[in-house]
Design goal:
By secondary structure, the chain is α/β, with parallel strands linked by helices. The chain has a single domain, classed as Rossmann fold (3-Layer(aba) Sandwich), CATH 3.40.50. Helices cover about 35% and strands about 20% of the residues. The protein is built from nine helices and ten strands. A hairpin with a 4-residue loop joins strand 1 and strand 2. The radius of gyration is 19 Å and the shape is globular.
């Protein structure tokens, strides 16, 4: 499994950005072991949460081993606490970066499938929010969305003030991310409004997988509310709820569950440092 760090200039963010990429091109096999047909890879664009960066998923989970087995390329950018949305005033066009530029650049760099059915987006917490809004906004690019412990916090944003203890939860900070908060509901940053819009347009929605831990007290109620919203609107989705908090123990377990849900290739074994002699 090749773990690649890439630095490139982003026109959407107007700066050099860094990503990690898991690219399973170096699988070693012996006689009698299954050899993968040489063809473009399916791809998961995987987003980190608040306070994290492009290294989080590799450091916090066993995503490398699981991607290797499933012949899946995983692309991991940094979210920079920006919630992966566009802010015209600041010039941080994170939505366009994720949904357009990152896909184009990585398809130029790596042997990736350009088919919608082979292209997925996911993330945890802030990245779970980002995967939902961008997966829906760019529904022609992404066929599946995996949102782990998604930060569905629009109600909190609407009711925020500048008295919050943590600066990143103050209204003035949210305004640097979302712009005019009074215009947030119904916008392309609103995960309910995006669903309603796509239903009205009668387009094919991405398939949606959502999970949240029952001990994730800050997000479980909002996640259940979104589950009920999807159900009431007859949206196809998978919802997984189980023991766990807002931590890597939960995300390590549930990113594997999400990968098992995705329409990936059959697992193929290879010889590497994690299974020598098996």
């Amino acid at each position: 499994m090749a773990l690649v760090r890439v630095d490139f200039f982003s026109e959407k963010l107007m700066r050099t950005v860094t990503i990690n990429a898991i690219v399973p091109i170096d699988k070693m096999t012996f006689e009698g072991m299954q050899v993968r047909e040489k063809k473009p890879f399916k791809t998961l664009y995987l987003l980190n949460g608040m306070f994290g960066n492009y290294t989080d998923w590799v450091a916090g989970t066993r995503i490398q081993a699981w991607a290797q087995e499933r012949n899946l390329v995983v692309i991991m950018p940094s979210g920079e606490n920006k919630f992966y949305v566009d802010n015209i005033n600041s010039g941080d066009l994170f939505g366009q970066f994720i949904g357009e530029e990152l896909v184009e650049k990585t398809r130029d760099l790596f042997p990736l499938s350009t088919k919608r059915e082979d292209t997925y987006i996911g993330g945890l917490s802030m990245g779970g929010y980002g995967s939902l809004v961008n997966g829906l906004k760019y529904h022609e690019t992404f066929s599946h969305i995996c949102a782990l412990s998604p930060a569905l916090i629009l109600d909190m944003v609407l009711n925020s003030s500048n008295n919050a203890e943590m600066p990143v939860f103050r209204r003035c900070y949210f305004e640097t991310i979302f712009g005019n908060i009074d215009e947030l509901i119904g916008s392309d940053k609103d995960y309910k409004a995006l669903i309603t819009k796509l239903i009205e347009e009668k387009v094919e929605l991405p398939k949606i997988w959502i999970s949240c831990g029952t001990e994730d007290t800050s997000l479980i109620n909002q996640t259940r509310d979104y589950r009920d919203f999807l159900r009431d609107n007859n949206v196809e989705f998978t919802y997984v709820e189980g023991p766990g908090a807002h931590d890597w123990e939960f995300w390590d377990l549930h990113i594997l569950k999400a990968m098992d849900w995705l329409p990936l290739e059959n697992i193929t074994k290879s010889i590497h440092s994690g299974n020598v002699g098996k």
